[in-house]
Amino acid sequence: MFGVRSKGCYTLSQMSRLSFYNLNLQELEQALVGRGKEKFRAQQLFRWIYGQRVTDFSQMTNLSKVFQGEMAELLDLTLPEMVTERISSDGTRKYLFNMGDSQLVESVLIPSDDRLTLCLSSEVGCNMACQFCYTGKQKLKRRLTAGQIVGQFLQVSDRLPEAQRITNLVFMGMGEPLDNPEAVFRSIEIFHSTWGLNLSRKRITVSTSGIVPLIPLVTASGARLAVSLNGVNDEVRSQIMPINKKWPLEELLEACRVHCRESKDKVTLEYVLLKGVTDSIQDARDLHRIAQSVPSKVNIIPFNEHPGSGFHRPDEKAINAFHNELMRLGTHVLRRKTMGRDILAACGQLATNPDARPRPRAKTQPEATL
Ligand code: SAH
Ligand code: SF4
User: Fold this and answer.
1) What is the CATH code for 81-356?
2) How far is the CA of 186 from the centre of ligand 2 (A)?
3) Enzyme catalytic residues
4) DSSP summary character for residue 346
């Protein structure tokens, strides 16, 4: 069997290879030292692979041929398969990935004036069962590995034209990031480390539905915190977000306050406007009061409809009235622009329907000989 490379059948070396994109610096160093290699080689490999995006070991010209061969046997550089890429009329791009066994997730790339934001998925499906969320309708099927999270970023950024760079990352795709903390925080370490992808921690945001005991992990990671508030009291919030029964509103807000104190940062309060459920003027006033009690800014997100949800998007008049009331009261508030609606890439619309082929990866230049 071994030595034959066909579906479901792998060579011995493939079976024992380490998934490179799952590793941090210390782990790669340990793996190398354990095989009698010099520790500093780990830094060299990270520089080639993350810094230069050279993924063919034979092009890593400061490594000997023998070492190149050994690394090809030790390290697996396979990225998650990009199944489709769809482009919205507003420039938003939605990518569908196969994470193995046809388990599909999506990432969304959102351009705006001064930034290019990639919205990452952390899980296939989600167990939090928020009533208004399309992902929540699909029970948790799998938690992604750090390598599969980093892989979404690499697959997308490798396809960008030379002049474009992803500037911001948000864990607002499919899944609840704090339900998969090991992989999410490991990926954040890879994203922000200088040996990794070297993105500023302050440009990485973790959005949670409110797994209160794990919020300190966001603080410790240095990433920014967003919380899906969505209800201004326990009654409404428990009705639309079952997690509120476990960690009610006041506990969530207290955890946010602690995060703000320790990170010296603000938290983003995400608030989905559901017609007749969360969109009254009194709700806006209560939301203002809550926003005053935590260093925060509010993002209002008009509900994006999906079949069978049982909820509706308020009309523009009601959305504007809600927004205006918050502004009148002096709340720091932004209405989140609905991006990619025509390709079902807007918040809470992430579906998994392959219907366009991805573009080929951009070519990378090998680093000069050192
Ligand atoms: N699980 C995390 C992150 C993914 S959801 C969380 O819940 O925070 C990202 C955001 O999309 C959340 O703020 C959620 O409230 C919002 N959302 C989910 N479904 C939506 C829908 N149909 N319309 C608008 N926003 C939605
Ligand atoms: Fe899960 Fe977030 Fe959707 Fe709730 S809103 S079901 S936590 S992905």
Assistant:
1) 3.20.20.70
2) 21
3) 106, 347
4) S
